[in-house]
Amino acid sequence: MHKANRAAVVGTAAAALLVSTFTVAASATPENAAQHTKPKSDVAAKTLGALGKRADLRIGTAVDMSALASDAPYRAKAAGEFSSVTPENVMKWEAVEPRRGTYDWAAADKLVDFAEENGQLVRGHTLVWHSQLPAWLNNGDFTADELRDILHRHITGQVTHFKGKIWQWDVVNEAFNDDGTMRNSIWLQKLGPGYIADAFRWAHQADPKAKLFINDYNIEGVNAKSTALHNLVAQLRKEHVPVHGVGIQGHLDVQYSAPHDIATNMKRFDDLGLETAITEADVRIPMPVDNTKLEAQAEAYDVLLRGCLLTEHCTDFTVWGFTDKYSWVPGVFKGEGAANILDENFEAKAAYNAMSADLALAAGRG
Ligand code: 9MR
C-alpha cells in the first residue's frame, strides 16, 4: 500500500480506537477494561512484525544479549515477534573498545548473526553519545585535535566493521537538552557543534548505503527540544550533510499525558525529506500495576504508533525491550516499572493488543 493511503486509513481508524480507549479508561471496571483490549483471534495469531510488514513498517525491539543467551522463551520471542532489532548495549563505545585500540565486536556480531538468521534488519546504536564511553576516553584529557581524530577513527572503524549489515545507524544520540540548547558533552566542549556534521560525513564515507539517524528523547511532541533538533537537521540538509532520519526514542510515563501532537511533529521532519522512526518505545508505570494504568499505558503506545503510521516516511517502530522481565526502568526510576508490552511471563498486555490492533487496521486496507 502507498504510505499516504496507510496514513489516511490509520488516521480515521486509530482515532476511533483512541476514543474507545479513553471511554473505557474513564468508566471501566478492571474486568471490562481487560475485555476491551482482547484482540480478535485472527489478529492475535499474527506477530507484530508480520502485521507491520503489511503496513510497510518494521517493528523492532532492543535486545539484551545476556537474556538472549540464557532465556529460551526470550530468544524465541525476539526471533519470532519482530522484524528488526537494536542492540541495547553491545554496540556502545565502552563495549566495543574497552581499552584504547583493543576492539571487541563479539557480542555485537552475535546479534547481527541472530538478525540474519531470523530475517531481521539491524539498527546500529550508537556511535556518538555522552554516556557509556570507555574510561580511557573519559579520563584521557585529550586535546581537541586528538579527540577529533579518536572520534573519526571510532566512527570509521565501527561503521566499516559492520558495513552492509546495518540498516539504520543512530549516529548521534541525545545531543540536546530539554530547553533546546545543545548538551554540554565532551564532544561539544572540545570540538564545538560541528562534531555532528563531521560524524555524519564520516559514517557516510564508511558505509554509503546505511541510513544515518540523529536520535533523542523528549522530542515526541512539538516543544523546544524537538524544534531545536528540527532547526539543526534543516540546516544540515541545506549543507548537504548526509543525515537521513530522525529517531524519536519514545520513553514515556503514564503519569504524564501522551504526546498527542506527535503526528504534527513528525510531519515537520517528513517535510524536510527525512525518514523518521520511533526507536526506543516504553511506557513506565508507578508501581503497583492496575488495569487503569495498563489501559493508560496501552493508550500511550497507541499514540506513539499512530504518530508513526500517520507519517509517510516513518520506517520503523522499535520497543526498548519487549518484556517486563528485563528492563532498564526499575533501576533508574525508583518505584516504577512494568514499562513493556509483555509481562514478566511473556503474556500480552493491553499495550501489545493495542499495537496489534493498530497495525491490523493499517495493514488490512489499500
Ligand atoms: O537500556 C539501556 C541500559 O541497559 C543501560 O544501562 C543504559 C545506560 O545509559 O542505557 C540504556 O539505553 C538507553 C539508550 O541507549 C539511549 N536512550 C535511553 C536508553 C535508556 O536509558
Automatic annotation (TrEMBL):
The keyword Hydrolase applies. InterPro entries: GH, GH10, GH10_dom. SMART domains: Glyco_10. Residues 1-25 form the signal peptide. Gene3D superfamilies: Glycosidases. It catalyses: Endohydrolysis of (1->4)-beta-D-xylosidic linkages in xylans. Residues 45-358 form the GH10 domain. It is an enzyme of class 3 (hydrolase). Keywords: Carbohydrate metabolism, Glycosidase, Hydrolase, Polysaccharide degradation, Signal, Xylan degradation. Its EC number is 3.2.1.8. It comes from the Bacteria. Belongs to the glycosyl hydrolase 10 (cellulase F) family. This is Beta-xylanase. It comes from Streptomyces yanii.
